[in-house]
Amino acid sequence: MSDTTATLPGEPKRGSILVASDRMRRRNRIEGIFRWLGLTAIVASLSVLALMLFTIFRDGSSAFFQAKLSFPVTLEAQVLDPAGNRSRDEMVKQTTVTYGKVLEGAFLAALAEKGIQTADIPEKDIRTMLSKAGPGELRARVLAEPGLLGQTIEVTVLAGGRIDGYLKGRVTMQSAERDGNVTTEQLVLADRLKDAGMLGLSWNWNFLTNPDASDQRPEAAGLGVAIIGSAFMMVLVLIMCVPVGVASSIYLEEFAPKNRFTDLIEVNIANLAAVPSIVYGILGLAIFINFAGFPQSSSLVGALVLSLQTLPTVIIATRASIRAVPPSIRDAALGVGASRMQTVFHHVLPLAMPGILTGTILGLASALGETAPLLLIGMVAFVSNHPSGPLDGGILDPATALPVQVYSWATRSDPAFIERSNGAIIVLLVFLLAMNVTAILLRRKFERRW
Predict the structure, then answer these.
(1) Can you tell me the mean pLDDT for 201-206?
(2) 312: which of 64, 121, 272, 322 fits an S-S bond (Cβ 3.0–4.6 Å)?
(3) Transmembrane segments in this chain: where (predicted)?
């Protein structure tokens, strides 16, 4: 007999476990391809995100700086206060036209005093280098401080939009030859003013505080009204959404009987979360403005519309957080004699709080970036005055919002507004980043392990 074991017919051939089989090599190859595709997708996504952020910051960061002219101005009392009694009622009769003449005369005098050559430049072109917002700013300063009359003060006023663009590289000598709003002589004078220390770029706080401006003075446009309007709306959405959303979630998850009616409610909540935002805008226009008669383009109407849109998201996130609490927590509380209400509010809700806060803040962040519903209720209107305080009826005053302001500026033809629209996107991204960071910090603060 032989010690060799015969191989039975049809028995699979067995290889060594130390040597990879063809099937194993094929599996490893497929796994490697899948990992490579996944890594490629991540790199491509991050590359697109980095390119988008780079473009936004490249084109929008200059909006936070503004070209300004500095020169002395003599505030002649006989011109600005002919009555001579320093009465605000009398001084307010002097319009920006009068202050504009004072400002332009002082600017021409400062050029002559500095010895800057202007013989080759028409006087009209020299005057238009000043922003049209300058006379209004000087008038507001004098009305606030009547004691300045009769004195010579140093003023810093905005330069015109094209001069601002020249200092930022947006306007060049070549483009000025094709632009009817600026001449090459003005750009040459801008270089002379810069060398003399009268013209330069400085931090632009007005971009964050000023209201919107007309097409004739884009350099004065700011986000003040949009920031206030967005803040009003987010506070109102928080007040209206969170109590209703959390209460509805607790009832549906802990107390509501499981029947067809509650199933219908759950289906409708899921459907409402998927409804396009513009539908909520149409609903808000029909109900809150046409039927209820609320003021158009007010923060209150915007908050009501965004609350309707955000409420399903808050309910879904809250229910998911409550459902994630282990049933053993409920059983233990009920087992020691706690009531159903005590079980929910003393044990379940505190454990679900991190998820509730995260879902709520992310819902608010989503509402902050909405544009379509706000366009339909008139918040795209030009608003030149800041809303009043919240206790003075400011939520009923006309306002706008950050994403709507981005849209409004992006549709204007002047390149200065395109720069400001990118700057507004940066501000909006900062707000969204702050809200997401807040959500993470609150989640970690209230997180409990079981």
Answers:
(1) 92
(2) 272
(3) 33-57, 223-252, 272-294, 300-320, 348-369, 423-442
